[in-house]
Amino acid sequence: MKRIRGIAIVCLAGLLAACGTSGSSDSGSNTASAPGITATTITIGSTQPLTGRAAPGYSEISASSNAYFRHVNDHGGIFGRKITYYYYDDGYNPTNTASLTRKLILEDKVFALFSALGTPTHQAVVDYINSQKVPDLFVSSGCNCWNDVSNHPYTFGWQPDYTIEGKVLGQYIQQNLGGKKVGYFFQNDEFGLDGVKGLDAQLGASSVPDASRQNYVPTNTNVGPQIAALQASGAQVVVSFSIPAFTALGLLAAAKIGYHPVWVVSNVGSDVTTLTGLLKSFSKGAAGGQLLAGMVTDTYLPLPGDSSNPWISLFKGIHDKYVSTLPWDGNVLYGMAQAYTFVQAFKAAGRNPTRASFVKALETTKLSGGPGLAPFGFSSSNHLGYLGVQVATIAADGTQTTIGPVYMSSDSGPISQYSGSASSPPANGIP
Amino acid sequence: MVAVHSRFDRLVSPTLSRHLLLALGAAVVLLLLSAQIGAYDNYNLTAVAIFAVAAAGLNLLTGLNGQLSLGHGALMAVGAYSASLVLKDHRQLPVIVVLLVSVLSSGIIGVVFGYAAARLRGPYLAGATLTLAVALPQVAIRYKSIFGGESGLTMPPSAPPAWLGADFPPERWLAWIALAAAVVTMVLLANLLRSAPGRAFKAVRDNETAAALAGIDVARTQVLAFVISAACAGLAGALLAYWSGITAPGGFTLALSLQLITAIVIGGLGSLAGAVWGSLVLVFVPLLTSGMASTLNLPSAVANNLPLAIYGGILVIAMLVAPHGIQGALRRIVAIGRARWGHMPGGGQKGVVDWDDSAPDT
Questions:
Q1: A172: distance to nearest CA of chain B, Å?
Q2: What is the maximum span of chain B, computed from C-alpha positions, in angstroms?
Q3: Which residue range(s) make up the domain with A221?
Q4: Mutate to test the interface with B, among A59, A84, A93, A215 (most CBs of B within 10 A)
Q5: B317-347: per-residue pLDDT in tens?
Q6: What is the pTM of this model?
Q7: CATH of residue A280
Q8: A65 lies within 8 A of chain B by CB
Q9: Which tens digits make up the pLDDT trace of A302-334?
Q10: In 3D, which of A151, A161, A199 has the Cα closest to residue A408?
């Protein structure tokens, strides 16, 4: 009892201190201005693949976002409000997503959906969320389907869309691997197809014959035939738009038949720590991280291994304090960076936002990219997140190195070089 | 007076009138319940009704006719895809038409598969139905232009009719549709079980040779059971499509078929009420544990898997405590009560509370 009282006093003190410092620009008192917002709390929710085929790697994201929110809460919260984050396991099954999203909106009465993960899963609920006029923030998927302001005014993307990634990776291949035969290995849904769209826009659709375009579905783990077909087509470079488990399966299938193309793997399927673990477990220890040597990928956040980057040391510190049982990898960084963007957006929306005013603020305020390498694209006509990526390579020991400048693009426009400089994190790491 | 009464008896058999009366009572209670509870509870009530329809159909096949099916999730997919496909081109079709199309299409698949199933026994039958569960979702992925591939087909919601008012919650309307479907299904199945085909189902289950000697066409009986069961699954699948707003292969994996089997085993094999109990478990137990990953301060490798582990644990305990399922346990409690107080419920008239067939003896 005494301890609880002690904690309460500490919390109260923190709350008062927070009010004292942050109240200057946005004075007034906290009100329950919207569902999920009380004078002392903000409740948000998410659906995530905590178990099942998409869980490896991705299951770390929500726990990491929560770690960042706990960091913010321990420093007084946002406008003195503590963030409560509910995340439920949908197992990457759209039917589960549908029912759990209703639980979040109707039962838990969350203010907003945050970081809901997956293209097929989130497509099942995006109409419903918008019909309920609930902000649908920073979907964890690079499908450009989230950027549909007229039909889904409450939905916002976050990571660069897969088409932009495809274009920048395509440009890298033209510049550095010119003259080699290119093949595609991609997930047969919006994720893979959007990536292929970007690649084709850059490389020219006719330069990659049908035999060199192999796809997989996440319900079938046998990718041997597709990899053999790529080998038979003579592809010397394989661009892969795949989730981590299928990147690993593809690499193993290729190694098994002595096929060693240059692998170019889009961001979501290339996390070194996750892949190394998967390669070891799928091959029962026979293979490991050495299969990643020479892989080309891209990033829109600083590299997790870049300890000189102030954002990395900030998030690594939060990781070590709150979720040290998770490996320090790109998924943890992703979850924290997303959570940072949420806090930025909430600060921009003011002390007592409604759901509509929150969305308006996100469209009209020029948010800094935070840890991101490129700025956000949010405006009243555009709900795309980060607009650019930087190419990186993976060495035999697993270290990643970025190459060249950050490139920006849109689905239809040309590729341009981003000239802005990287930002540094604010004190305490709270925007 | 006596003459009038007997004529009425001949028109409506006591079994049918009893079932209709019970159904009417259930409908009134459910309607009142649905009007009292909020949108989210209605949404869950809908899920219970949907699973009850599918589980009742499966219980007819497995519990009463002795045919094990691991493919009922796929038959639900047939119903769901039929509903989504007819609505793709004709968005204004009334719900009842959509549901009937689904019942019909899954029934047809049921005929085809029932003929194959009637030739197979035990593990071979399980294996054959398993292929259905594994293969059918792949068809949707292979023929992407028709079935939408991995992302599936969206299902336009069924808006409440205007006469219910503009503010009528769509969740309550969907609950009414699903509950109506469940009550109608239960009445039809309950009547069937009390009729000649129902008795034939049980006879075939208990001893095929004896049933054949008694003049029952064993194969035909088995096909009939499969078709009726498939039609129930199709109806549930169409309702599930309305409920989730999406028809995608990820929603109809083998796990769904196994869930249905879980429902009838936990609820009580061979009993319609058991299908309802099982559906309640299927819907509400995962909801109780779903929040654990984010609210318990545990390492995420533990927290993420805890809901599944608890769910599994509950199933194990339930099977140890009540091997005949919840309905079996309830019957046992009633029987113990009877023995202790020497009192027969319903004034000693056997059959008044006997809505279902008793569980098969082991």
A1: 30
A2: 75
A3: 162-299
A4: A93
A5: 888 888 889 999 999 899 988 888 765 554 4
A6: 0.84
A7: 3.40.50.2300
A8: no
A9: 999 999 999 999 999 999 999 999 999 999 999
A10: A161
